[in-house]
Amino acid sequence: SPMFDGKVPHWHHYSCFWKRVQLLSHADLDGFSELRWEDQEKIKKHIESGGAAAGKGGGQEGGGKRENSLNGFAAEYAKSNRSTCKGCEQKIEKGQIRISKKMVLAEKPQLGMIDNWYHLACFSSRRTDLGFLPTFNASQIQGFELLKAEDKETLKKQLPSVKNEGKRKGGEVDANVISKKRPKKEKEKLSKQEKLLKDQTELIWNIKDELKRACSTNDLKELLIANKQEVPSGEAAVS
């Protein structure tokens, strides 16, 4: 096809997607605005909390994963001296604490999220660039519970959360705190925009749902053709 951009979508269940990818913004998702409003909100809250709920109900995978752990970050003692810090490009000595920022390689997306290791100090100095938000804290990093007590304290000092008010019991990030800190006028403006977007999205989906109830798949195809719209392949895509 002349419209093919060389990119092939890899579809996942909702819960499986967050195990392979970490997003910093819902704007990175193509088609986000076309979802139902409640699903948009669900994704926004998940991203704002750093995917803290992604491990819910999944057991203690890897031994150091808690329910409020961040999917995109991990901490451990280096198993050898073969890993190289992505920050300073120096070797990470065996037994030294190393922090991983998990990323998907553009050239090999099928591999999922790959560990990019950093010295603790190198990671700490780059935390913003690496997507470790101010509201995140060291105890949310996967593998934190497996570290020695003194090393846990070191991580907490190097990677503190900015405000304690942003945490719930157990160090979990409250995704609503970010919006609470905004100036009143900005919050009112955003609230009006949100309401307009919500009303628009719900109106569109109400129309879609009514059409689906009242029309057959063939009727919907005829409507698209009559309005000079492209007819997508597959019955599910039409309805």
UniProtKB/TrEMBL annotation:
> Any idea what this protein is called?
PARP-type domain-containing protein
Q: Where is the composition biased (Gly residues)?
A: 52-62
Q: Which terms under GO biological process does the entry name? A: DNA repair
Alphabetical list of Pfam families matching this protein: PADR1_N, zf-PARP
Record's GO cellular component terms: nucleus
Keywords, alphabetical:
Metal-binding, Nucleus, Zinc, Zinc-finger
Domain of life of the native organism: Eukaryota
Q: Domain PARP-type: where?
A: 1-51, 73-163
Its primary localisation, in coarse terms, equals nucleus
